[in-house]
Amino acid sequence: MRTVVITGASSGIGRATALRFTEAGDHVVNLDLKAPEPDGSPAGRWIRADTADWDAVRDALADVHRERGRLDVVVANAGISVRHGVLDIQEKDARRVTDVNLLGVLGVWQAAARIMTGQGHGVLLATASVNGRRGYPRYADYNATKAGIVALTQTFALELSPVVRAACVSPGGVLTPMQLAEYTEQMLADTNARIPAGRHADPAEIAAAFFYLASAEARFITGQELVIDGGETAGATTSAYGTAVPAGH
Q: Which family does the entry's similarity section mention (predicted)?
């Protein structure tokens, strides 16, 4: 039984990923500021933690390692976004987005990597986004953090191979609570119209990618970004990109 820690597993992609690993018999721990959704969390344990707080993350991972005796997989999934134009970005919002989305991944991965290198194995995974691959209006700070995750993935892989693997998943539009909170029905429909697959992804489809990347079948994959976007970034479509939507968590 693997020990798997997932940040932001109380809802969205994180919750679906926790469910996927739990169904496979893994022991899953959820690090999240908010409590699991009312219908219950698939994770075996919830630890309230702000992933932007490196000390809290380090302590939480150390506790899990002491309790379980191993730390096999860490999925840095927690993320936030604030929809605003570049001329309207507030410093406090931009700093919080960066602290959670980028520095949060760095802190979680560093703390986990120290444990994993000591035990001789481990897999580091993270939720990036197609927003990190090209410019998407009204998400400048979010876009920058997601591009940064790809750079972290490459660097961690170079420094920690072959003991620890690192990879990230870059979803396109995903029907998550965060996505639904920021977009109207018309905006969601417009987004579907410009995705070649004609729809948003289900969180379970992203979870399946994480499960694969954590598996032995993916043991030769490190330093890579797996894009799951229904063809959105494959090339130009007949629809305009003015209402581009980010990946939800």
A: Belongs to the short-chain dehydrogenases/reductases (SDR) family.
From the candidates 142, 183, 212, 241, give the one annotated as an active-site residue.
Answer: 142
pTM score, whole prediction: 0.91
If phi over 0 gives left and psi between -120 and 50 gives alpha, with beta otherwise, what is residue 45? beta
Query: Residue 10: pLDDT above 60?
Result: yes
CATH 3.90.950.10 fits 3-228, yes or no: no
Mean pLDDT value of segment 212-240:
87
- For residue 80, how many other CB atoms are within 10 A of its CB? 18
Can you give the residue ranges of every domain in the chain?
3-228
pLDDT above 50: residue 244: no
Strand partners, 74: 5, 124
Neighbouring C-beta atoms of residue 39, cutoff 10 Å? 7
Kindly provide the residue ranges of all beta strands, DSSP E only, lying in the chain, ordered along the sequence: 3-7, 27-32, 45-48, 73-76, 122-127, 164-171, 224-228
Q: Are 96 and 102 in contact (CB under 8 A)?
A: no
142 catalytically annotated: yes
In our burial notation (b when 16+ CB lie closer than 10 A, e otherwise), range 51-70 reads: bbebebbbebbeebbeebeb
